[in-house]
Specification:
By secondary structure, the chain is mostly beta strands. It has a single domain, classed as TolB, C-terminal domain (Neuraminidase, 6 Propeller). 3% of the residues lie in helices and 46% in strands. The chain has one helix and 29 strands. Strands 12, 13, 14, 15 and 16 form a five-stranded antiparallel beta sheet that branches. It has a four-stranded antiparallel beta sheet with strand order 3-2-1-29, with no helix packed on it. Strand 27 and strand 28 form a beta hairpin. The longest helix has 12 residues. It is globular and about 50 Å long.
Length: 353
């Protein structure tokens, strides 16, 4: 249960940052960019790092509150995140940023990729963008809600007392925009995978695994990968939402997962290191023998994986690393303690800039 809580909390305070690849001019180099959170100034703020450039980190959010759960729009031009105002106190539940504190108000914000045009949208928690970048789906008061990115058009997508979305997991919008997947508790307090049409119709349960987390769509929208933790039975599962049932492809005490951009592999952190595996369960490879890896994120070109490492447990994060997808060339990217939750920027074609 400790590891389950850790995974769910990682889902709340950690996956939340993406990154933007900036094309300045057709004659200039385009650098891969990673977005991450850091506690280096006494609260969680968002930073950008150009991976292969000798430039300093750029702070793009600055507030006395903590900015968490950041997610890039698919075109890499905007970032949505949760700004949490909290006070020091005891650790309560799965909604607490580091160090231990009780979030009192959580407001979803949207800003441009450089931190400009910041605007508050609505109260809410873990979130995701619609594939077209016009709407946000999010958890709030154990419901799934959706809203336009400009703050208009708030709707309740899931409002069923017998289906209570898990606070530690963001909803996941299908790449074609038609459905939203999410983890939720039933009346028996079992957490399983559910699917609902984006307009709130056709709510259905997809699994009966008992305790799942981190639902993540494959790039083609045909498969959902997720993590199961229940009574010591753990693993990475995949499911075809139209066919089912969920099948276990790796049972190595997973913590976090991400699909490769081409959908041929899944990278995941486990209790003893970093792995990749094909979605049919074949070609399981241990890339790195290192404990306390939390979030993982695959680069848009599929060549590298970013991840963060904790010294002792989730709340003592050391720094961010990158490694080639074949396990070579490990690089420590940041050197400030409490740098975490790396996510690569979407690569934007030059024609769209």
């Amino acid at each position: 249960m400790h590891n389950l809580r850790r995974c769910c909390m990682a889902a709340l305070i950690a996956t939340w940052f993406a990154a933007a690849a900036y094309t300045q001019d057709s004659s200039e180099a385009q650098f891969d960019t990673i977005l991450f959170r850091s506690w280096r100034d006494g609260e969680y703020s968002l930073y950008l790092r150009e991976v292969d450039a000798a430039t300093p980190d750029v702070k793009i959010s600055d507030d006395a509150s903590s900015d968490l759960g950041a997610v890039w729009s698919s075109d890499g031009r905007r970032i949505a995140f949760v700004r949490a105002t909290y006070f020091t106190g005891d650790l309560i539940g799965d909604v607490v940023p580091t160090p231990p504190a009780l979030a009192s108000i959580c407001i979803i914000h949207v800003m441009d990729a450089d931190g400009s045009n910041l605007r508050a949208v609505t109260r809410g928690g873990r979130l995701c963008w619609s594939p077209d970048g016009t709407r946000l789906a999010f958890n709030h008061n154990r419901r799934i809600q959706a809203i336009n990115a400009d703050g208009t058009g708030l709707t309740r997508v899931v409002d069923d007392p017998d289906v209570r979305p898990h606070v530690g997991n963001a909803p996941a919008w299908c790449p074609d925009g038609s459905t939203i997947a999410f983890a939720a508790e039933d009346k028996e307090k079992e957490t399983d995978l559910y699917l609902v049409n984006a307009d709130g119709t056709n709510l259905r349960r997809l699994t009966n695994l008992g305790c799942v987390s981190c639902p993540t769509w494959s790039p083609d929208g045909a498969t959902i990968a997720l993590i199961k933790w229940l009574h010591g039975v753990t693993g990475i599962y995949v499911i075809d939402p139209d066919a089912g049932p969920a099948e276990c492809i790796a049972n190595l005490k997973p913590i976090w997962l991400d699909w490769s951009p081409d959908g041929t592999k899944i990278a995941f952190s486990a209790s003893d290191g970093l792995y990749t595996v094909r979605p049919d369960g074949t070609d399981l490879v241990k890339l790195l023998d290192k404990r306390e890896i939390c979030t993982v994120d695959w680069s848009p070109d599929g060549k590298r994986i970013a991840f963060d490492v904790a010294k002792e447990g989730l709340f003592d994060v050391e720094s961010i690393y990158i490694i080639n997808a074949d396990g070579t060339d490990l690089i420590k990217l940041t050197h400030s303690n409490l740098d975490a939750s790396p996510q690569w920027a979407p690569r934007v074609p030059e024609a769209d800039n």
